[in-house]
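Box 3.1. Reading complex inputs
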Amino acid sequence: MSSALPWSILLLPLASAVVILLFTLRSGRVSSFTSVLAALAAFLCSWALFTSENTRAIELTWIDLRPLLYVPLGFVIDGLSKTMLLVVTGVGALIHVYSLGYMRNDAGKSRYFASLSLFMFSMVGIVLSNNFVMMFIFWELVGVSSYLLIGHWFERDAAAEAAKKAFLTNRIGDFGFMIGILMIWSATGSVVFREIAMQMPQIIAHPGFLTIAALLVFCGAAGKSAQFPLHVWLPDAMEGPTPISALIHAATMVAAGVYMLVRVGFLVQSSPAALGVIVWIGTITAVMAALIATQQSDIKRILAYSTLSQLGYMVMAVGLASGEAAMFHLFTHAFFKALLFLGAGAIIIMLHHEQNIWNMGGLAGKLRVTFLTFLVGTLALIGCPPFSGFWSKDAILALAYTRSMPIFVLGLFTAFLTAFYMTRLLVVVFLGKPRTDAARSGREAPIVMTVPLLLLAIPAFLAGFSFVATRFLPLPQEKEAVALVPVLATLAMIAGVTLGVVLYRNREREPLNIALLRKRFFFDEFYTWLIGVTQGTLARLSDFFDHWIIDAGAVRGLSSATWGIGALLRLFQVGNLQAYSFLFGLGIVGLIYFTIFR
Amino acid sequence: MLLFIVFVPIAVALLILAGAPARASAVAASGAVLLATLLAFAGFDGGHAGYQLVTSRLVSADWGIHLAFGIDGLSLIMLLLTSLVTFAAVWFTPSIPEHENAFYACLLLMAGGALGAFASIDLFFFYAFHELALIPTFLLIGIWGTGNRQTAAWKITIYLATGSFILLIGLLLLYRSLPEAARSFDFRLLQKTAGQIPAGMQHHIYLLLLIGFGILISLFPFHTWAPQAYASAPAPAAMLHAGVLKKFGLYGLLRIAIPLLPEGARYWTGLLLVLLLGNIIYVGLVTIAQKRLDWMLGYSSVMHMGYIFLGIAAGNIVGANGAALLMLAHGLSIAVLFAVAGEIRGRTGTLVFSDLGGLAKVMPFAGLVFGLATFAAIGLPGFANFSAEVMVFFGAFHVGADLQHFHAFQVTTVLALWGVVISAVYMLRAYRTIFMGSASEASASATDIGTNLRPPIFLLVGAMLWVGFFPQSLVGRMQGSWRTSFPGK
């Protein structure tokens, strides 16, 4: 029985998606309840799996071309995947419930919940996969559900563009990922993690090969986890409904890249050169995104850049060769970031889709539950002791402190920036006086939305304490080592908060104006230009060449050759196609006859 | 069984020409063929190495020609593809204002020819059945086409006739190069002669076959007939040709050229890699530049041939399985895409991107299935195309791989993988402009695809998903096919 549990966790959401697609598209109500039930059931199964000792599941065959290629559909069930399942299905189930409120009056409710179930299916698949090809399958499927959900309001041009951009950026990452998989397979003859791990010695003998393969695999993670320079899709993905931003683009999917890197830690950590690149990509992402976040005015975009920045921390931890620290931060971040997004969603929907923080203000008294839970999320995010984010961020900073001073300094600087921009957000949105009519008339969200907030606030506060966290995952060792690090981190946080309060208290508009940050370092403009001059030009040139050289040239050549045939045909007084076709068949038969049989 | 599968469409085509009710008979015939193929599929023994369900009738004792049919795993897949797409194409035929009977008869003749070519185990009929299928293709485009149909019909006729002609010369040369005693038209006997042709001769023959088959498959740079023909062809004809008939060349390469001319295949591998990259990268870029859906789909179908060539070029069992599966996968997905494109043209009067927009609002079902087929075409897991492409990439990357350098096949695989990005670019852009965004003038008044047209679409999409989720159900049936083609690989 218990060996069927992993399969039920995987297949319940799929069943829900299929049922909705085939039968209940017309009834948003039935669809939404189907989907929510599936998510809750998947969570209960995950809990049962977590508490059981079971590590086995039935393995199926996807492709069997042994001895060359064998791709099973099998699961890896260990502490890592069990905890990750709990996070995915737990946060997922809460967000399903919250969506009941948020999407109550949406015309495409069935489509929304079907996509949400598809997402749960794919994400669970990533977590459970025991081999590269199967992980790639679910990896791409997660990309599809993300595409569908970002583009949920497809009539809006911005949403349609954002969905496309997210998919294509991820495709570029997956291009590298697939090459990496192929390289590793060609070296070890297997795609199964366990078997590759056993064969690592023979790849390690070729450090150049190993580094390239590891970095290519990292490409996939960089796409999914929106690392520099593939980070551009994530802020745009905020065009999707807010529960999606919370679930997919903050708590779970974007963390999949980090999870994958931890899962294949045996590969990545064998190459110091690859680790060196990874740690710097993570650091650059962390600092850059935090800088950009300080100058955004859309509440979801601020949170999106903050997600980027926190993902940067996690990748930094991977690059510092500590999967434990990365997973610890992933674990706490999932709760407090989902909480922050859901809080933002409550504000947005109660203010009739207002997202500009400068059109809010003074909401603390009107949306009490939202404010208090948002405050908990913020304190966790900025690493205020003893909230969860403090512990996990501290673990990463302690690692950096012992391994690399420049990384540590930049990490500390990011912590300062985080405290600064979150204080700015909190002060501008919740304190002061309401700046618009919408803000004046705001009131508390319905209970299906506030209950998930309250439920998420608990782990956002508690998940960092070691007596809680060690139940779920192994904690990094360096944590207790350096006493100076938490002190410095807390000082950086206090500095950030102070600066934020001083600068933004009772402001009517943005006092700072830094175009470079507001325009996000002009990445989008640069990429648009780059694609225009490379792909656009090449495509137009090829099209011209195809039309005017190959086609025209070949046709002219062929038609002059057939000109003679045409003249011949006119002797028979026929010029039409039917007759030509007939003669063509006749000619072939004649030709065969004369060449072979004579 | 095979006689039934091949001759029912041809016989019913003749009956329709003689005055039988066109649509009803055609749907019944294609449905019967589909059922028979599914039965053959269910009863097929994957471990068996030779041909199954063999029937043979002597046609000419002097020349040694038999009307002989038989299937192995590879031909089984081709039959499955043909009968699925035929059924859908016939069902999807709109009301034809002129010569309705002739239209349906042409469709069934195409199908019968394709089925005959894939089921034949006699070289003569293999070739003859393909010619039988080509002629109605030209007529369908020339008579019932749209736009610049005369030019398109002439172009495809000239091109494909030239291709068939070069192919014929190659096949004749192949036949003549065999030692007198070993000459035969029978595939089963021919297979035993593998390697008996001297290497130098193999080079010449293989090149002729590659170009002959290549023109039929729209191998770069012989591809320019395809987009125009598909843009002009009525939707069912485009479905049948792009989906099924074009695969004849690939099937021929796998069935004849690779096993009988291994030395020739090795010799020309470099050339083939360059040409197939022309299909993937160059034609992929051309596809991005298209401004109309029908042209874009035509070019995209040319582009995807490159991946099948890559699987064939790999010359190992993984690549060959990938190529075979990709033939099926591509055939199914392009059929859905052309079917929906035809409906869009019928309902909005245009396929120009800039005139369309927001169609998902008024045509939700069309939006759904076009989206599914788009995902399939860009190789998303869950669909047949992905499982096939994975095998193609693994098969190709494997050739000559070592831990020091990338060689020709590794470089080609990497570039081909970039093609997957390219195809996502143009397909998603098309989907975004046609179905998403705000509704354009032309799309505002369109109506959705009615329930009466939906069953064949469900069938094709269901088949794509089946193969995507359970590729082993087909791969297992092909085990026997490759034993003779790739011994020891």
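In summary: Strands of chain B lie at 52-60, 65-71.
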